[in-house]
Amino acid sequence: MTTKAAFNFLLSEERERVVYGVLKKLHVGPLHPQYQDFLQEGRIIFAEAYLAYKKQHPASDNEHDLMLFAYQRIRWRLLDILRKEQHHISNCQSMESLLPSNNGTTSEIVFEAVDPTTFDTEEETLNCELYERLLKQCTKNEAKYLQQSFLFMRPIAEIARMYGVSRQTIYNWRAGIQQKAKSILDEETPAA
């Protein structure tokens, strides 16, 4: 597989809609000052996701799974970019507040109301970070469940059929993940 093949796949049969869908979900519309940049970045990420998926699943022709995989990859990467951009902007504003104003005194820090669209972005970023941390701690089987349920949003019965195990086995995998997630969240929550 080549990058050219990935872009050809993206640009055929209206598959580029997945990039537009991610941008819409992240509230980055055509009026956003960096819309074209994010659109191009999304296309590049799609091509990278396509190549990664084909490398992991060389014999698979399931376009639906590929598109879900690409959607998640694009969403996570664009969330990271938006988060870094927001962090950079807030750092710049904090630095400006320390500079002397025209009358020789330092200006006060002004806190503006938070844009409601950032709540979703922040939550998505936290979910992605938790997913990555969990994936590192999971057993091989737990990782299978986590990937299928989180990335592809498959129900337990379908995951059980995929791996040829009982639903109870899948519930056990999920319980192991839940314990690991609880311990991660307990580490992050300061004791009162």
Q: Could you explain how this protein is built, in words?
A:
- This protein is mostly helical and 192 residues long.
- It is built from eight helices and no strands.
- The chain has helices at 3-11, 17-25, 35-56, 63-98, 117-137, 140-151, 156-163, 167-188.
- Helix 6 (140-151) packs across helix 8.
- It is flat and about 45 Å long.
- The termini are far apart.
- Residues 94-101 and 105-119 have low confidence and may be disordered.
Question: Any chance you could write out the topology, listing elements then pairs?
Answer:
Layout lengths: L2 H9 L5 H9 L9 H22 L6 H36 L18 H21 L2 H12 L4 H8 L3 H22 L4
Helix pairs in contact: 1-3, 2-3, 2-4, 3-4, 4-5, 5-6, 5-8, 6-8, 7-8
Features:
mainly alpha; 192 residues; 8 helices
- For the CA atoms, what is the radius of gyration? 21 Å
Strand content: under 5%
Major sheet details: none
Give the mean pLDDT: 76
Order of helices and strands: HHHHHHHH
Shape: flat
Helix content: over 70%
Low-confidence segments: 94-101, 105-119
N- to C-terminal distance: 53 Å
Total DSSP helices:
8
Count of DSSP strands = 0
Structural class, please? mainly alpha
Task: Describe the structure concisely.
With 192 residues, the protein is mainly α. Helix content is 72%, strand content 0%.
